[in-house]
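anyone seen this seq b4? input:
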Amino acid sequence: MRDATTLGWPELLGPAIALLAVLVAVFVSWFQLRYQRSLLAIERTVGMHRDITSGEVGQARDRLSEFMWRVGSRSGSNHCYRPSWEELLGGTYLSLAEGSSDLSSYPADIANGTNVTPSRDLYKILWCFERVAAEFSGRLIDQELATHLLGNHVVWWDALCLNIPFQATRYRKNLNDLAARFDELDAKLRPWALADFE
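predicted toks r here
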């Protein structure tokens, strides 16, 4: 007869199977959670791309970039113009430096009957990139997909804003910091963007 303090294999088999089942369930749950987080990050990344390229921000991007391309072509070049902060605010708010243009309002065909301004559009764009930066920093979006979908937009707008000092608006610094992170992830983005401005 066995001692009550020793257990045989049959007595241990039941608890061992139960423990194994719990471990498998924990692993499956952990895997599903990681998978769901990954899907959510991809969904957020695609949503950020949609925010940047369509709707109110997309329209602001279209207007401001078209305007800057027109200003650049006036000088006879086939490059996009980099405005200064003073030019975007215009003579109404600041005194313009010698040789600067007043770019504080759109031509009628770009404004299309609205009272939008280049500076207001720039803020819409910068605020959108601020949201991207927050989600990127919090690892709430898929960083690899974000580099492919958002990196070129971020770096291009950072290149357009190079003549706008960080002191003009803190959102400019946020854009620059985000662009630097995308530059680290894909070294081809910056040369590609700068080609439009040189």
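The radius of gyration is 27 Å. Residues 42-194 form one domain. kinda curious what u guys think
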